[in-house]
Amino acid sequence: MYAAVFTLHILLLRFFIEKFSGRTMNLFGQDPILPSDKHNLKVYFVEWLRYLLVAVAIIVVAVPEGLPLAVMITLAYSVKKMLID
Question: What is the pTM of this model?
Answer without folding.
Answer: 0.55
